[in-house]
Write a structure and sequence with these properties.
With about 110 residues, the protein is α+β, with helices and mostly antiparallel strands. The protein contains 2 helices and 6 strands, in the order βββββαβα.
């Protein structure tokens, strides 16, 4: 469930920071400086998509911190939350490759 790796997704200028992950889900954030906040995306590797959660009022906690991201990861694992079917985009092969590379770097203990 470690995080901290940087991932550049296809078509994005700024890299995402991995906040939490497991075998199926990867929760990533990036700064949104214009509003002094952050944007998040959840990658579902089994479905091959990424996007926001399906909760009407958004996330129940701050996923820009590892503790909050871990809580959301537990909800995803329990089936209490999922990646939105309406607002998701397909993961490109380049996206999958970048996510898998960050996972391998985490396992080896070297940051990207």
């Amino acid at each position: 469930m470690s995080g901290g790796a940087k991932v550049r997704l296809n078509g994005e200028r700024q890299r995402y920071t991995v906040q939490a992950r497991n075998e199926r889900f990867v929760i990533m954030t990036k700064p949104f400086n214009a509003k002094r906040t952050y944007l998040y995306t959840i990658a579902d590797l089994d479905r091959g998509v990424r996007g926001p959660c399906n909760k009407i009022f958004g996330l129940p906690c701050d996923v820009n911190m590892p503790e909050g991201a871990t809580k959301v990861l537990r909800e995803l694992e329990a089936g209490e939350m999922e990646v939105s079917f309406r607002r998701c985009v397909d993961l490109t092969p380049a996206d999958r490759e970048a996510i898998e590379a960050s996972s391998q770097n985490d396992r080896r203990g070297c940051g990207v």
